[in-house]
Design a protein that fits this description.
The complex is a heterodimer.
Chain A: H1 2-11, H2 17-40, H3 51-84, H4 102-128, E1 151-158, E2 161-166, E3 172-174, E4 177-180, E5 185-191, E6 196-200, E7 205-209, E8 215-219, E9 225-231, E10 243-249, H5 251-264, H6 266-271, H7 287-294
Parallel strand pairs in A: 1-5, 4-10
Antiparallel strand pairs in A: 1-2, 2-3, 5-8, 6-7, 6-9, 9-10
Helix pairs in contact in A: 2-3, 3-4
Chain B: H1 3-29, E1 35-37, E2 44-52, E3 68-72, E4 79-80, E5 84-88, E6 92-99, E7 122-124, E8 127-129, E9 141-147, E10 152-157, E11 174-181, E12 187-192, E13 216-222
Parallel strand pairs in B: 1-5, 2-6, 5-13
Antiparallel strand pairs in B: 2-3, 3-4, 6-11, 7-8, 7-11, 9-10, 12-13
The chains are: A alpha+beta, B mainly beta.
C-alpha cells in the first residue's frame, strides 16, 4: 500500500518549491524588517544622544534590516524542507542527483555580492561622514568635523579612574565629564599608566587610552542627558569599577559650570603640569624637587631608581 | 592490576581531586584578609589606619617588603593587616591615618585635591589642607585614601619613613585626619591609593597596588 502511494506520488507533478518558499519568506521578511526599523530600531544601542551614537544606531539598524531577510530565508527553507521533503514511511528511494543550477548559482552570487559590497560602501561612508564615527583616530586624525573649533576635552586615564582636562578654560581637571549640547567635541585620550579604553557609551565614543600617546576622537552631543563612562580595556583588578558619570547640558549651563569650576579649582590647577597631549611621569620637571626632598633617586630621568628592577 | 587495587587507586585519585578543589576554593577564594567591623557610637565611628613602607614577616608573611595599610581593631586595639572594613550606613566616619611611610610623588596632581570630606578639608597634624602640591611641597604626599564611588579623595601626608617593620608603634609618623558621611545605600565601596607606590613593579603599578590587603580594599557599608 505504501509502495503504491509512493508510485502515485511520483506521478504527481512536482510543485514549484522555489515560488512557495519565496511566497512564505516574503511576508516574514517584510514584517521582520518593518518591526526592526520602526519598533526596535529607535531603541537600538547606543541611542542617539550624539552624532556618533546616532550614526552607530543607524549602522546597526541597517545591518539588522539586511540580515533579517537572510535569516528568515534560511529558517523558511529549513522548516519547508523539514515538512515537505521529510522522509515518508515506505519511501526508500534516493533523491534525484542534482548537478548545478546556473540560475540559482548566479542569483546567489549576485545577491550576496550586492549585500556585501553595499554594506562595505555604506560602512565606509558611515565611518567618514560622522568624523570617524566616535572611534579613536590616533594622533593625526584623518576625518575631522566641520563647523569651527571643537571643544577640547582631554581624557586622562589612570588605574582606576578617568579625569578630564579642559584646556580652553584654563586647563582645570575634573573627575566628572561635562559637555555642552550642539557643539563638536574633540576628545584627546591618553593614559598615565597602563592601557585603558575611554568608552562614553551614550555618546558612542570609544578610544584606547595608551600611555605616551594622544588618541583623538570626535563627537557632537545632540541631546542633553546623563553619560556613563566605562573602561573598555582590561586594566587591572578594579577595571570593572572604572566608571565615571557625566552629563550633556545646555550651552549656557556648561559655560556657567566651566566658569565656576575654573574658579573653584584654581588652586589645584596651579599645581597641574602645563597642558600637554601626553604626560610621562619620567618627564614632568616638577617631580625633581619632590624626588630630592623625598630622597628618591629617580630624578635623573626614571620614575624609580636603578635599584628597582622593572619587574621582580 | 587486581580489582581491589584498581578500585583503591580510583578512590584515592578521586579524593585527591576533591581535596585539591576544596583547597583551591578555601585558600584562594574564601581566603583573604579579615574585615574590621566598626559599630557606631553616638552616630559616628572612628577608623584608625597606618601606612608602612614595609612590614615584619610575622605581621605580613606573604609580602613583608610591600607597602601596606593596616587598620586598628576598635575593640582589641590590635593592628590588623587588612584593607577591608565595615561601617554603618548614614554615619559620620572620623578617619585618622598614621603615616609611617616616606614620600612618593603623586603621578597626577589632581589627587592632591581633598574632596568628599566634611568641609572639603583634611588635617595634617591639625592644620587644615584643601589642596596639596605633592611635587613641590610644602607638604609631600605618600599615598591617597580615595573612595571613587563617593568622590572622596584625601592625600595622605608623607611621614619620616624611619620605621620599616610595620605595624609601627613609635611616634615618628605624620597624622592625617578627616571625616565623611557614609552613604545610605549599603554595599561595598572600593577604596584605593592613587599614588603609584608599588616600588619595584613596572611604573609602580603592580604588587601592592593590585592586591587587596595592601593599597586597595573595600569599605562595606551595612544597615
Amino acid at each position: 500500500m505504501a509502495a503504491a502511494d509512493a508510485v502515485a506520488g511520483a506521478q504527481r507533478p512536482e510543485p514549484n518549491h522555489g515560488l512557495r518558499i519565496f511566497l512564505i519568506w516574503l511576508p516574514i521578511a517584510l514584517v521582520a524588517d518593518l518591526l526592526i526599523w520602526f519598533v526596535w530600531g529607535p531603541h537600538m544601542p547606543p541611542g542617539d544622544m550624539s552624532s556618533s551614537a546616532g550614526s552607530q544606531q543607524l549602522d546597526i539598524n541597517v545591518m539588522a534590516v539586511m540580515a533579517a531577510p537572510v535569516m528568515a530565508f534560511v529558517l523558511t527553507y529549513g522548516v519547508y524542507a523539514l515538512i515537505v521533503w521529510r522522509h515518508r514511511e515506505g519511501d526508500d528511494e534516493d533523491g534525484p542527483p542534482i548537478h548545478g543550477n546556473t540560475r540559482i548559482a548566479a542569483t546567489w552570487i549576485t545577491v550576496t555580492s550586492v549585500i556585501v559590497l553595499s554594506l562595505a560602501i555604506f560602512g565606509t561612508v558611515q565611518l567618514v561622514g560622522p568624523a570617524g564615527a566616535g572611534a579613536g583616530e590616533g594622533n593625526t586624525p584623518i576625518w575631522k568635523p566641520s563647523g569651527g573649533t571643537p571643544l577640547q576635552v582631554q581624557v586622562i586615564a589612570q588605574q582606576w579612574r578617568f579625569t578630564y582636562r579642559y584646556p580652553q578654560f584654563g586647563g582645570f581637571e575634573t573627575t566628572s565629564l561635562m559637555l555642552p549640547v550642539g557643539q563638536n567635541v574633540q576628545f584627546n585620550v591618553t593614559s598615565l599608566d597602563v592601557v585603558h579604553s575611554f568608552w562614553a557609551y551614550q555618546l558612542g565614543v570609544k578610544a584606547d587610552a595608551n600611555p605616551g600617546v594622544n588618541n583623538v576622537a570626535y563627537t557632537k552631543p545632540e541631546h542633553t542627558g546623563n553619560i556613563e563612562v566605562r573602561c573598555a580595556e582590561l586594566c587591572g583588578l578594579w577595571h570593572a569599577d572604572m566608571t565615571t558619570a557625566g552629563q550633556v547640558v545646555s550651552t549656557s549651563a556648561f559655560n556657567t559650570w566651566a566658569a565656576s569650576t575654573k574658579v573653584q579649582l584654581a588652586a589645584l590647577t596651579k599645581n597641574l603640569p602645563p597642558y600637554s597631549l601626553t604626560y610621562s611621569p619620567n618627564l614632568v620637571p616638577q617631580l625633581g624637587k619632590a624626588f630630592q626632598q623625598a630622597g628618591l633617586t629617580g630624578a635623573g630621568g626614571g620614575y624609580y631608581g636603578p635599584q628597582y628592577p622593572v619587574q621582580p | 592490576m587486581s580489582l581491589p587495587a584498581r578500585v583503591t587507586t580510583l578512590i584515592v585519585a578521586f579524593l585527591a581531586v576533591v581535596g585539591g578543589v576544596i583547597f583551591v576554593v578555601a585558600h584562594y577564594l574564601l581566603g583573604g584578609p579579615p574585615t574590621v567591623d566598626f559599630t557606631a557610637s553616638g552616630g559616628q565611628v572612628n577608623v584608625v589606619m597606618q601606612t608602612d613602607a614595609s612590614s615584619s614577616p610575622a605581621s605580613v608573611p606573604d609580602h613583608p617588603t610591600w607597602v601596606s595599610y593596616f587598620i586598628k581593631n576598635p575593640v582589641s586595639g590590635d593592628w590588623v593587616h587588612t584593607t577591608l572594613f565595615q561601617v554603618p550606613a548614614s554615619t559620620r566616619v572620623h578617619v585618622t591615618i598614621l603615616g609611617y611611610d616616606g614620600s612618593t610623588p603623586v603621578r597626577n596632581q589632581v589627587w592632591g585635591q581633598v574632596s568628599g570630606t566634611a568641609g572639603g578639608v583634611a588635617y595634617y597634624g591639625g592644620t587644615p589642607v584643601k589642596t596639596v602640591n605633592g611635587w613641590n611641597g610644602p607638604y609631600l604626599i605618600q599615598h591617597t585614601f580615595a573612595i571613587p564611588g563617593l568622590n572622596l579623595n584625601v592625600p595622605v601626608e608623607a611621614g619620616p619613613g624611619t620605621c620599616s617593620t610595620g605595624p609601627c608603634t613609635n611616634k615618628a609618623h605624620s597624622t592625617t585626619t578627616f571625616s565623611f558621611e557614609t552613604p545610605a545605600q549599603t554595599g561595598a565601596y572600593r577604596w584605593q591609593c592613587f599614588v603609584p607606590c608599588g616600588l619595584s613593579y613596572l611604573d609602580g603599578n603592580g604588587g601592592p597596588m593590585q592586591t587587596i590587603g595592601y593599597m586597595m580594599g573595600n569599605m562595606q557599608v551595612v544597615s
